[in-house]
Amino acid sequence: MSFGTSRATSDPSSTKGSARPLTLEDIRGARKILAGVARATAMEGSRYLTRLIGAPVLLKCENLQRTGSFKLRGAYVRIAGLSPEERAAGVVAASAGNHAQGVALASTLLGVRSTVFMPVGAPLPKVAATREYGAEVRLHGQVVDETLAAAQEYARETGAVFIHPFDHPDIIAGQGTVGLEILEQCPEVRTIVVGIGGGGLAAGIALAVKSLRPDVRVIGVQAAAAAAYPPSLRAGRPVSVPAGQTMADGIKVGRPGDLPFRLIEELVDDVRTVTEDELSSALLLCLERAKMVVEPAGASPVAALLRDPGAFRGPVVAVLSGGNVDPVLMQRILRHGMAAAGRYLSLRLRVTDRPGALATMLGVLSVADANVLDVSHVRTDPRLGLTEADVEVHLETKGTEHCAEVAAALRSAGYTILG
Questions:
Q1: From CA 336, how far away is CA 329, in angstroms rounded?
Q2: What is the mean pLDDT of residues 269-276?
Q3: 15 pLDDT more than 80
Q4: pLDDT (mean) for 307-312
């Protein structure tokens, strides 16, 4: 689904009553602060996506940024702007991953003490990376809301400065430097597609781009299971939505930030949603075709292109916002993506339980050119006859049509497919 905002404004820096309107000059100032700190990340073409939409598609590779995501940009600008007294008090943040690492490295580079609260179930690689970047990590709470409350309480008790992940002008200005780089690396761009969680990245990119090139369309993407922006845009104000289950934890935010929302409401042309199947298919495509390790949130713009390729005027730039994905989760997502693309097939078959029966069945699968990943027998089900067995087989296939061909070959050989 999509929620069209179709917005235009004569003053891109307007934030409808914000105490501190954000401007293009803030973003240019942030870029000077980030010089020598954040990388100007690469822009890579995608032949597959270019053929798909019929116009050039380029990938803005923030997954190759230091700490593995764009978050370092905003965190560094925010912490660099603290007074000497605030720096002496230290900073605190709450995050399940990318913001944690961005704050940790930014603080270390600036000589500021940092404490980062992370959920108890946060992926171990992200916890380890945050510690290695120099932060004291405290595990608290089962969900991010509990972790956030703990971090804010710590700030009140100690005087440490709380570094919000998206709802602060300095954070948005830092993330907006991505937009300046896009315009320089692809001056002919007509559409930019970017994932939206709280909205800091999309708001910053939209402000930078619309200030210089109001003709460029900026499209936001959210996971359908955790999409707070469509109802908020309809209501004209940030509203909270239940925290749904999505693999794209980097854009799983229950309520838009106040400042990002005002900018997105005015400057972002459309906000679309994508399903879990589409996210996993996009992640698989990034890995196989672009050779890019991208987390589900970072793959959300690619998922939007795959879902509705005719909706985007080219040249298109898709922002791969991050590449921090737990290897265990990656394994599950890739299998899910293969299934969504029709390249993974699971079947349960009824066979005669006699010597050589399994080898015969595997021979049929070999002739059908299906790659067997796993096989298991069931012989003790009371529904089975004395000479019967069920075999569950997991196969790698070449696509949806090949799945149908494999099933047809098994039926032609006399096998009953139970599911």
A1: 10
A2: 96
A3: no
A4: 95
Annotated catalytic residue, options 60, 69, 71, 232:
71
So what's the pLDDT on residue 79? 98
- 64-99: b (≥16 Cβ within 10 Å) or e: bbbbbbbbbbbbbbbbbbbeeeebebbbbbbbbbbb
- Residue ranges making up the domain that contains 96: 71-162
Asked whether 178 and 204 are in contact (CB, 8 A), the reply is yes
CB 313 within 8 A of CB 191: yes
Q: Say which of 46, 95, 211, 321 is annotated catalytic.
A: 321
Per-residue pLDDT tens digits for 70-90: 999 999 999 999 999 999 999
**Residue that is last in its domain, among 277, 310, 337:** 337
Q: How many helices and strands in the chain, by DSSP H and E?
A: 16, 15
Q: Does 321 participate in catalysis according to the annotation?
A: yes
315 preceded by a cis bond (ω within 30 of 0): yes
- The pLDDT score that the predictor gives to residue 8 is 39
Average pLDDT score over the chain = 88
Does residue 256 share a domain with residue 208? yes
Separation between Cα atoms, residue 94 and residue 116, nearest integer Å: 6
Answer yes or no: is 294 within a domain. Answer: yes
Q: What is the pLDDT of residue 378?
A: 63
Torsion of CA 153, 158, 163, 169, to 10 degrees: 100
- Nearest residue to 180 (alpha-carbon basis) of 66, 7, 38, 50: 38
Look up 376 and say whether it is catalytic: no
